[in-house]
Design brief:
Elements (H helix, E strand, L loop, with lengths): L42 H7 L18 H4 L19 E3 L6 H5 L12 E4 L3 H13 L4 E4 L15 E4 L6 E4 L4 E5 L4 H10 L2 E2 L10 H6 L7 H4 L6 E10 L3 E8 L4 H10 L6 E8 L1 E2 L3 E9 L4 H11 L7 E7 L3 E9 L3 H7 L1 H4 L5 E7 L1 H7 L10 E4 L2 E3 L5 H12 L7 E6 L21 E9 L13 H15 L18 H6 L3 H11 L22
Parallel strand pairs: 2-4, 3-4
Antiparallel strand pairs: 1-2, 5-6, 6-10, 7-11, 8-9, 8-10, 12-14, 12-15, 13-14, 13-18, 16-19, 17-19, 18-19
Helix pairs in contact: 5-12, 9-13, 13-14
Amino acid sequence: MLICGPQESSTKDRTRRPTDKNSSAEFWRIPVERIRAMHDYSRRGLLKATAVAGAGAVVVPGITAAEPAAASAAVKRPESRKCPPAQLTGRIVRPDDPTYTDARLGWDQLFSHYPLVVVFAQNTQDVVNALTWARQNDVALRVRSGRHSLEGWSNVDNGLVIDISELKSVHIDGASRIAKVGAGLNQLEAVTTLAKQGFAVTTGTEGSVGLAGATLGGGFGFLTRWLGMACDSLVGAEVVVPSGTECAKVVTADLRNNSDLLWALRGAGNGNFGVVTSLTYKVTPLKSVTYLQATWDGIGDLPGVFDTWQRTAPSADNRLGTQLEIHRKQILLFAVLAEGTPAETQQLLAPILSVGSPHVTTQVGNWGDVYAGFQIPTADEPANWKFFSQFTRKPFPSEAISVIASFMQKAPTDDSNFFTQAFGGAVRKSPRGGTAFPHRDALFYSEPGAGWGTRGTQPGVCDPLTPQAQAWIAEFSQALRPYVNGAYVNVPNIGMQEWETAYWGDNFDRLREIKAKYDPYNVFQYEQSIPPATRDHGRG
């Protein structure tokens, strides 16, 4: 039973992470105090206190991320071998810990969960141990990084949360243009660190989102039309996967090793096949960008602005990435031109900027500095959010634009908005090896989003505005159904029946086969996870 009552106390560690700038390649580590054991629980006690995740998985003794034999091992049909009893290692937080409240809360406070234990992994072996422990003790598990799971699926009541957000290593090889990073980096950390070396990859626009989560679901932002989806630059990953009936092991996924797993991770990797502990990217040189923002007061110019944008932005110069954000009292256009000038940016956007009388500002600078400059502190954002994702392959007719205007006029808050991201350009080209992301022919992506409430520790369901905000999103998304298709797995649509094909199209059957190969017992599962193709170990 959920009780809306006094708020819990919360603490937060804001220690800065040092950077070693004395070598040609950059290494970034967090100093942490390692905790090597957790109080023993009896199996009977665990079964009473925790949720059941299904038959088990665990560590091959002595295998760590540093051992190439484990990293390159192919996944075979599960064996019935047993593993030594596992202990949880890393930074461990339990309900009696004073930092538990902070450890359990996510970015979207509409959802509130109370896990049995949160393991903040400090290295790959900690993840292996945690997965093994969960399987041996029949404890439900979830994987978390940036805490931006928009339906709260990276957390679980009475279960184990494997949090990889403290895996912050960075190694950049400028000569080969390859960057290997810990899966705990958020997008702001990744963008600014790469930009200091003059490189970039595609990321989303919100810095606090985990880089791994964004990439594994596809990943798009201002550089998408120039560099493709974030997953297109992913050339390798280190992954902890189930092994046998109660073990876990480390594998490498790249074009030579487990290439099918790399394909699946490129667009369907979040919480489905294993725990990604590091990602390897092909990076692109980027010296500077021009950032433009245009603001129209009110939404009276929406028909002209939106129609002009949708007919020009997806076919513009590939270096130009644009987003529209429509609020109930204003229209915002954001644009980034890679390696371009303000004059060139305004010329490319002239058709849109000629509508009405927008206020226009421009900024030129290093991509990391520009990216950091438009971030909004999490503390200043609403506590609760609800979205509905969709793709569009044909321009919206005037009727659809009128639907947007009508719903935005009655939006529940000023923060609520209708967001769009132009596609086209490099999105239409798949990288070598392909990807599970299917929406490459879209003109643009869009989502209505409701944001409301003040941050604290109260669940969002306790906010009196929640019913209105939820109803607004449901009605808005339903009104747009005739004009959109598909959905984005990183912004899940919980009310959609055929979510499998909405997220992955014709790729779903192949994803189920890959799931059966790497996670046949369906250890990694949540409300909209991919079930294995074999009926022997699936959800039925």
